[in-house]
Amino acid sequence: MRIVHPMPDESTATPVRAPLVTVDRLTVDMPLGRSGSSVRIVDGVDFTIGVGERVALVGESGSGKSLTARALMRLDRLAKLSGRVDFDGIDLLKLSDRDMGKLRGSSIAMVFQDPMSFLDPLMTIGDQVAETLRIRGIGKAEARKRALAVLDELGVDRAAERLDAYPHEFSGGMRQRVVLAMALVGEPRLLIADEPTTALDVRVQDQVLDLLDDVSTRRGLAVLFITHDLGVVAGFAERVMVMYSGRIVEDGDVASVFAKPNHPYTQGLIKAVPRIDQDLNTLYAIPGAPPPPLARPSGCPFHPRCDQRFDRCGKDLPALLPVGLSRVACHLLDGKGA
Amino acid sequence: MLMSIDSISKSYNAFPNPPAKVLHDVTLNVDTGEAIGLVGESGSGKSTIAKCMLALIKPEEGAITYDGIDVIHAKGEDLRRFRREVQMVFQDPYGSLNPRMTVEELIGEGILIHKLEPTAAARRARVAEMMEMVGLNPNDMDRYTRSFSGGQRQRIAIARALVIRPRILVCDEPVAALDVSVQAQVINLLQDMQKKLNLAIVFVAHDLAVVRHLCEKIVVLHKGKVVEQGTREQIFDKPQMPYTQSLLAAVPVPDPVVGRARRAARRLETAN
């Protein structure tokens, strides 16, 4: 079978959606021990997430992808955040802790990689799923009813009987469904999923992705999906943002980015992944390793590993500029923008 | 045939429950210079087989033979030769290298144990040669592992295993802990070493795409049993068993057009 890649243009591109989240020059600084100094992990990122949009945030360890996502929920108490995170007209970085707490679970919810460490082993599944609602003052019977409805929606078999079961009685895939139910019971508009399928076997991962796909479509739920797996990105997301060393280097719709990646790092990543559906002679290996945040090179942080670098790359930091329907931070593309 | 595993079975104690049988009657062979992939989901027994091949644990039933040595009952000179010729690389390059040893000590330890070089200078020269071979700078010989990245550490682990010229290298998820951009470097290195040294590689992995890329022969495991084994073409292009088919169908493809078509086809199949 030969696959023809349609080159996306204005006519086939996904429709522009009303923005739900607008992030503007977000930086995240983490303290270094008790020394009083800090290190900038996220170095000024701008992006939007549309209502109901599925966006993947891809990057390697230390790229700042998880901290960017956690900053949207203000989960790290020690992190110093600056910039703007606008959620449906509210600047989240200016909210009081109390108001932010009210938003968590009801407007924005999050699921993590390892469901077992996220679940309380001594609390029943039903109570854990209902907890978000109970905190918001919803009565016991009603909360239980809604917990049951969500577990049903997520395909937990015999959910009514299993409300009173404990996490150890569930398999890995079922636990991830329970964790998803906890996140979704408050009917959030944005779900942040941080490597939710990384710890799962492929067949279970596949089921969880299908489930997320369905829930997101049915509910008009926006999903920010953090992953390092390009296969998952290609199958699930509508848009992909690639992070490298604390910055977004490319942002575009999934079809265009995979058909014609613009940034040399994105190009390298795509060529570096072996594929189940075809034989490749040799894999392209990006030389070197991602820089630690305390030792970022000057200019473009990717330039020491880049096979297309020229003299300017070591001096100036490239801005994230529009190129066609994407945004790319690379000097090679300066002046080629829309 | 370099190593043969003949219907081995293994149980682990699970007191107070009855022992859990994790391998049932597993049979497979490793030939000189070939890369063989053991694939399966968690709990399939793939790591247990690797441990049996390394004589780290002993199966209760069956036999393992390596080049005329009965591995399960080997002693003395036979065991020493087996330990030299069958080496391993683990998943976690942070946990598997002693942080208090220099790179020279780490890579040279096997030479010392097996008394392969008479003098310190000769040992050092061999370590340097090995470092060069795996893409490390021999000038870094006196450094400690903490200053190396994950990919470089895995190179150290590979150099440490290969410096005593083994004939089989057993790798348990050697790239699973590495970043995507670094994985390819280590995969290419293993492929390169296999060819250069005529090395047999036993590659234990859950990532089927990596296995397809690296291995000529594949063994598919499920719940401690061999479901299917065959060449790369047999397993990936014409899988016979429904389990293998479902496993392959679930692997995401890094291409939105192909990936979505595959998922749509699979969902249609489950719906029917």
UniProtKB/TrEMBL annotation, chain B:
Cellular compartment(s): Cell inner membrane
Leader sequence residues: none
SUPFAM superfamilies referenced in this protein's UniProt entry, alphabetically: P-loop containing nucleoside triphosphate hydrolases
GO molecular function: ATP binding; ATP hydrolysis activity
Record has Transport as a keyword: yes
Gene3D superfamilies given in the database record: P-loop containing nucleotide triphosphate hydrolases
Membrane topology listed for this record: Peripheral membrane protein
A Pfam family this chain is assigned to: oligo_HPY
Keywords annotated in UniProt: ATP-binding, Nucleotide-binding, Transport
ABC transporter domain mapped to chain residues: 3-248
Protein name: ABC transporter ATP-binding protein
